[in-house]
Amino acid sequence: MKTGTEKLFMKGNEVMSEAAIRAGCRFFAGYPITPQNEVPEYMSHRMPEAGGIFVQAESELAAINMLFGASATGARCMTSSSSPGISLKQEGISYIAGAELPCVIANMQRGGPGLGNIRASQGDYFQATKGGGHGDYHLIVLAPSTCQELWTLTMNAFDYADRFRNPVMILGDGILGQMAEPVEPTPYEPVCELPDKDWILDGCKGREPRVIRSLYLRPAEALAEHNRHLHAKYDRIRHALPRAEEIAVDDARLVVSAYGMTARIAGGAVHEARRRGMKVGLIRPITVWPFPEEPFLRAAEHARQFLVCEMSEGQMIEDVRLACQYRRPVAFYGQGGGWYPTPEKIFERIAVLYEECR
Amino acid sequence: MRFARPETLYDVPTHYCSGCGHGITHRLVAQAIDDLGVRERVIATAPVGCAVLMYDYFNCDVIECAHGRSPAAATGLKRCLPDRIVFTYQGDGDLAAIGTAETIHAANRGENITVVFINNAIYGMTGGQMAPTTMIDQVTTTTPHGRDARLQGPPIRVCELLSSLDGVAYLERVAVSTPRDVIQAGRAIKKAFQYQLDGKGFSLVEVLSMCPTDWKLPPVKAAEFVNEKMKRVFPLGVYKDKG
Fold first, then answer.
1. Are residues A260 and A169 located together in one domain of the fold?
2. Which of A16, B86, B137, B226 has the least C-beta neighbours within 10 A?
3. Nearest chain B residue (CA) to A205
């Protein structure tokens, strides 16, 4: 469905905010932290216009717990932050996952650990995809690489959250949040079936009272049973959601893999390699949890080697090794601490590795 | 007037210890909700602490929050459903230690919620450690020689602390250690809910309550401990009333 002539030219942080509102988000709580400040700023004026609620929370901890309450009423709700603030939210994220409440959490990653710096980074991949908070749970994690994709995935995030009653993280970075580029604001259409919210708390008028909780003391097996229930859900998500973009992978001898902003930069290097006649492809995971394993396993049939690029010292590389089942060597190019690669540098690595693949 | 179980409480035995103040306070809260006729509009938040299982006793919607985060969760609930009645039920560790920031800021924003704050000067569920409201010289499992102001600071007086905040509509400290106190506590709790119904803003009732098990006192002595020790450190009365 086309919207006609509407085009937006906004920073990624604002694109995400507007997409959230058009997807029906009506509660936002956040706390200032660079490089995502445009999100609470934008929400502070747009949310009331849209009939929703904006709260500047006293902390990241309070913000995520405000979502805990808002989500329990059935409202579509969101918070955003950047790396140190996301660490603070982990307590609430664990409770939200345990209580199976849908919500959307954006992480515009910056350099770490600790206070780190305010430059773009992908150092929170492990935290986002492997847990972060305590307990045996998963977030659904989406990794947009352009503002246009950020628009779409933000809308998708609310649908996935509601479909699976699970928190969804948008894993961006400081570049994506701060860069402005034209976006076609495609209208919101649910991307999947949305179940009735027959679990919300809104007062027990005409029904039995409901309880939302994450404590399972009795009987002794209750918590194990709850974990089995959660993991059956995660298996459904693993089956339904993995998504990746594949560019020139079919005949590739060397397959580059990267997500988010790094994938966009790596794409330029892969394009340059193809222009020079080198059989190089790119696999760009769009969901990083669940990780799209199948394209890697398929590529391992013909590729001699993989190259993973990240704005970190190497985190997603572990999932790539697992996905291709260690059948091929997996090289790495990247750096932590608030840094981004150039297409030229990635191409240099490609050229060296490609010689080994001939 | 007929003395009967309020509809807002289930007819089940509780897990609370003999002489504990939670049972009395649960009843007072339930009675206030019954009297105001709002049970089907109530959403309660359960704390981390002895009262975490309050949803086994309260016949209304309940959400179980992380330790100290109830005022933030209640903010989300109430902002999304402003015509529902939202109350938090929190102990002293929950409200005045780990959740101090959430308490102060929800109060300062004037969130139109009601807080029932149980002050028994000790951590009950975890086995009797020092609370932010533990009194000077009071022995706990983490102050074996008594609370020492030089090491642990003096107890926090929550009503006095919050009374400086303009967003707060109503603050009262009550007790449940004598029949007279219980009657006054019931009045205060009902008034706090009435203020929420009237949209007046943040209301909090601090309840001085007994913990015989962790005080290592029999129930009657525990009530005397409230009357003779706690009321001196935590004077009863209205600390704020915007009217």
1. no
2. B137
3. B40
